[in-house]
Design a protein that fits this description.
alpha/beta, TIM Barrel, 8-stranded parallel barrel, binds NADP nicotinamide-adenine-dinucleotide phosphate
Length: 337
């Protein structure tokens, strides 16, 4: 359905109390503050999704003080369509709020055919940011990420491309994603030499996936950058959603996503036990999973996905109960392995 088909949708006026309850956290040693909870547009914003639902989610997010929206060139499906839909909604609802928003996009995965539409060459990154800006109708993004390390391209080439994108005014800050600690340190040193503000590393981090704790978080602290934790709810497994079966329309039930029934079944017992701990804390499992990540000072923001405004409203309540007892942490540790 086209966005103009529902003419009855009211013009958007952001809620006047939008900054009253959200917490803002510093991104490493930079000047940037991010909302403790940010919204990712990987799912639910593509050409296959309802743009009206997408619009409700974005409006709800901003009304809750979520100022950071995370995109990538290939989010959809189809590739590019999340940026296109975001662009449509930005134009309708958010253009006058541009200076209150922190918008990210990325390049690094398969995007267009041929040898120049993937990985980390200068050719790919510079073409991709131009395409992303056009799709979103923006003059610049706040942060541009290299989405994953490229084992074939010299890291200097990739970092110089990121630096040039900043110098051209197409991005204000630089981020990297899915880089291991050693690659991260190398990238950070190169960007520092070029005096380019490297502020964020986007890494998968949840109760079920703790690889960043080995040494990535320390490396980031050393280099003055923050970690933004993606898939903090393990794509929905760390919520009440699957406690009593697989609902229709859930990520597991859809066949074009990355969460399988097998992955869910392997974790179900642990999910049930974690849910009991959350219950005893007087919290939903989703809220506990988010609060648990925000204990880490190096985590600048927790980057959630949501398929409805109700999920967003539930998730931001994580901020109401941030503290954990030693006993709770130990129990969660056991269940996270
Ligand atoms: N850099 C990278 O390589 C990378 C990779 C992956 C993701 N990311 C970023 O991280 C963002 C978040 O990733 P993610 O979507 O996997 O995060 P997530 O927060 O772990 O999972 C989000 C999904 O969980 C379900 N959910 C959320 N809140 C819920 C609630 N209260 N109750 C029940 N179900 C709930 C929804 O799924 P249903 O659709 O089933 O309702 C929602 O779409 C992405 O949008 C993207 O921006 C980056």
């Amino acid at each position: 359905m086209h966005i103009n088909d529902k003419t009855a949708i009211k013009e958007y006026q952001a809620s006047s109390d939008r900054y009253d309850t959200m917490k803002y956290r510093r991104c490493g040693k930079s000047g940037v503050l991010l909302p403790a909870i940010s919204l990712g547009l990987w799912h639910n914003f593509g050409a296959v999704d309802s743009i009206h639902n997408a619009r409700e989610i974005l409006r709800c997010a901003f009304d809750l003080g979520i100022t950071h929206f995370d995109l990538a060139n290939n989010y959809g499906p189809s590739y590019g369509s999340a940026e296109e839909n975001f662009g449509l909604l930005y134009k309708k609802d958010f253009r006058s709020y541009r200076d209150e928003l922190f918008i990210a996009t990325k390049a690094g995965y398969d995007m267009w055919p041929g040898p120049y539409g993937n990985w980390g060459s200068r050719k790919y990154l510079i073409a991709s940011i131009d395409q992303s800006l056009q799709r979103m109708g923006l003059d610049y993004v706040d942060v541009f990420y290299h989405h994953r390390p490229d084992p074939e391209t010299p890291i200097e080439e990739t970092m110089i491309a990121l630096s040039d994108i900043v110098r051209q005014g197409k991005a204000l800050y630089v981020g990297i994603s899915n880089y291991k600690p050693k690659e991260t340190a190398e990238a950070a040193s190169l960007l520092k030499e070029m005096k380019i503000p490297f502020i964020l590393h986007q890494a998968r981090y949840s109760i079920f996936d703790r690889w960043v704790e080995d040494s990535l978080l320390d490396t980031l602290e050393e280099h003055g950058a923050g970690c933004i934790a993606f898939s903090p709810l393990a794509q929905g497994m760390l919520t009440d959603k699957y406690l009593h079966g697989i609902p229709q329309n859930s990520r597991v039930a859809k066949d074009f996503t990355y969460l399988t029934k097998e992955q869910l079944e392997a974790k179900l017992e642990k999910i049930q036990k974690l849910s009991t701990i959350a219950d005893q804390r007087g919290q939903k499992l989703s809220q506990m999973a988010i609060a648990w990540l925000l204990r880490q000072p190096q985590v600048s923001s927790v980057l959630i996905g949501a398929s409805s405004p109700a999920q967003l409203r539930e998730n931001v309540k994580a901020l109401e109960k941030p503290l954990f007892s030693e006993e709770e942490l130990e129990l969660i540790d056991v269940l996270s392995k």
